[in-house]
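@channel sequence for tomorrow's demo:
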Amino acid sequence: MADTVTPSGTTTSPGQILASLDPLLREWLPRQRWFAGKGRPVTGFTPVAATELLPAGGRLGLYHLLVQAHQPPTLSSPPHPGDCYQLLIGVREALPPRLAPALIGHVAEGPLAGRTVYDALYDSRPAEVLLEALRSQARIGGLRFERDPRQEIREGLVARLMTAEQSNTSVVYGDTFILKLLRRVVPGVNPDLEIPLALAREGCARVPAPTAWLHAQLDGDSYVLGVLQPFVRGAADGWELALRELAKGEDFAADARALGRATAEVHTALARALPTVTLGHSQLRVLVDGMVERLEAAVQAVPALGPYETGLRSAFEALADLAAEGRTWTAQRVHGDLHLGQCLRSPSGQWSLIDFEGEPARPLAERRMPQPPVRDIAGMLRSFDYAAHSVTPPAPGWATACRAAYCSGYAEVAGTDPRTDPVMLRAHETDKAIYEVVYEARHRPDWLPVPLSAVHRLATSDLT
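structure tokens (generated this afternoon):
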């Protein structure tokens, strides 16, 4: 556990700081969009590290905290040490009105007694402290601020918080850089830094190359905490762009084809940059068993899946049967959570892929495993379906055209059309649709008919 390091060289125990904040964080943390343990109270915290970036005794103080949040177990969430969260805590005597949405509360006791604490990322000055630390490659306590020496970080860039994200938090600096700060962190190599660095070495222009990154070295463990990348000024989010085109009744096929090409370029570069493996019968059996386990758990969680269970299971067993006949596939590093919202189109029309963290709910080791590239393709096909069902009335023909164009674009670069392996594609799209059913049932019941319509299709026929 790291001590708090102050500019004066004195130290304060992380336990003291956290004890001062504990009652406020118990109320505030579960309300945050990026908090993973929705629906269960926080029963306590364990400090991992606390670092003072600006002295708390001044007009503006700033703490960087890593804390484990403990919650009562449930049937679907057995006991575990608690998720570790990264918090940037600002300290002031009182908040100006512009920072009212950032309020955490007023501290009653401990070393911060009498002060007001808030989410510092809403405040430009604390956010600029982070950029300066990255620019100067600072080392503060257990925090390590690193950067690519070939890329310049100018001083004086004004920070502004982006409010659209859910699982992480991003700050834009002067339309030049964007800093993505991971909120729920685990020790180990994070693919959101690992993969863009590998693609940068390959010269792949489809993914912004990391300019700088923040990590922590604590008791022999390394935590990736944030990545700074060039900001694509004027870029359109793929999901928002698709919805705009749908609302106008415009065709999206040309963009879908270009997006397929971009996906294939990233896959091709990843296959060069990082190891690939061959999936034979035993490896495919493990993959299929995982899909079947997720199906069985989903049927228990969402009874509406029950009538489709046999048909959905057949999608997975058909893949196992091909492997038993001697068919093999190549697995490689992939995006892991690809959908329209993970893609940006620049004003010039160039598509980029972002956010290589993978599905945050899955273990880090699993997110770093080689996967069949079709996993990403299935995710994008499901995203087209979601977009088509977000308008009234739904536009299934629009999704069908996008699916075909995307696969054709992918084939132009990769040399292989995903539709020529319909069993593998159906299995992965089925696995994704089952995940969506569980997610929507828990978080957005009004959206549940969207993945259920896909479940009906996938359970009753092969993909063509």
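heads up for whoever presents: Residues 1-11 have pLDDT under 50 and may be disordered.
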